[in-house]
Amino acid sequence: MKGLPSADFWRGRRVLLTGHTGFKGGWTALWLARMGAHVTGFSLAPQDDPSLCALADVERRIALSIKGDLRDEAAVADAIRRARPHVILHMAAQPLVRRAIAEPVDTIATNVLGTAHLLDAARACDGLEAILVVTSDKVYANDEQRHPFAETDPLGGKDAYSASKAAAEIITRAFAKSYFEPSGVRVATARGGNVIGGGDFAHDRIVPDIMRAHARGERLVLRMPHATRPWQHVLDCVSGYLVYAQALSSDASTPRTLNFGPQPGADVTVGALTSAMLAALGAPQEWSHEERPAGIEMKELAIDSTLARKTLGWRDRLTGDRLVQWTADWHRRLADGADAFAMIERQISEYEGLSA
Fold first, then answer.
1. Residue 212: which residues within 8 A CB-CB, separation 6 or more?
2. In what order do the strands lie in the sheet with 64-67?
3. What secondary structure does DSSP assign to 189-200, as a single string?
4. Does residue 1 belong to any structural domain of this protein?
5. Of the residues 1, 15, 238, 275, which has the fewest C-beta atoms closer than 10 A?
6. Maximum pairwise Cα distance, the chain
């Protein structure tokens, strides 16, 4: 079906996936394996406890799992030699804004230098077709004027996370122009919205925080309930990345940067998402707002994914109530003892069957 990942494309293809032990990376690894790809994962050990990686046994379900740090140049180069990839999906990162504020240098080392290590090592890779570097919707110079950012808007970043992702974009484009395009390897960046879904257990992310408070019978305290974000389900986001990589490998005219997010105007506040999640869990829609000194996190954020919709035929299928219900259902079933891998397989199958 147009706009969905194709097993015909991925079957037998060698893929190096960085970040396979994380939330989005875990879903990506399992979807690729389901389609018959030969996946080599490169990542740190899972950073959360529990983790989707452990619950769904992600490492056992792919061809090869390599534990390593993007900041280790030799380890990155060795992973590429062992993977011999046709496609590289670079998703590993330090992904948390508040951790980046507390640990800016480590975040920059991972997100910027780590990306450079990967791209530099990939220069020696024979048979490579495409590299997709996943950055963030936060790469833009955000003036909080409530307009959805398009791919041509200026990059920026007031915090270390946003700045590191914007820098990764610049580094990627430099390597593409200097080394990869002359040799026929297509390199692009993908800017995804704020992702929710089953299996996210990170701290300082809204859905895991909701689930932990719900499990303890506590009232959730929100920092920025009026902030808006381009929420999307992990399956919509990962589907976009995979379809994008397919297009890069087969069509030289594919844009080299694309946004993936909900339709403009579909962004909702943190408070509204929290209330919807609590309702889906059958819990009282009650939360508190703790006033804190003004920080540098953005209050308004929206991205325009029109170009991805037009060029790839991609669209977000899990919108509105579906977005929340699929997320809440996964976590509720897990709490009742359901198997994490079986739930991922079921949701991928149901997602592939949704009407276009």
1. none
2. 64-67, 38-43, 14-18, 87-90, 130-134, 186-192, 257-260
3. EEEE-EEE-TT-
4. no
5. 1
6. 58
DSSP-assigned letters across all residues of 272-296: HHHHHHHHHTT----EEE------S
Residue 259 pairs in a beta bridge with 191
Which residue do the tokens 């359901």 mark? 338
- Here the tokens at position 128 are 């490579």
CB 84 within 8 A of CB 15: no
Q: Domain containing 55 — which CATH number?
A: 3.40.50.720
* Percent of the chain predicted with pLDDT > 70: 97
Question: What is the per-residue pLDDT across 236-281, written as a single tens digit (0 to 9) for each?
Answer: 999 999 999 999 999 999 999 999 999 877 778 999 999 999 999 9
- How many C-beta atoms surround the C-beta of residue 60 within 10 A? 8
The residues that bridge with 64 in the sheet, in sequence order, are: 40
β-strand partners of 41: 17, 65
2: in domain: no
Asked if residue 319 is part of any domain, the answer here is: yes
The range of the structural domain enclosing residue 174 comes to 7-291+300-352
- Distance, CA of 187 to CA of 304 (rounded, Å): 21
At 87, which helix (H) or strand (E)?
strand 87-90
First to last CA, the chain: 8
Structural domain contains residue 121: yes
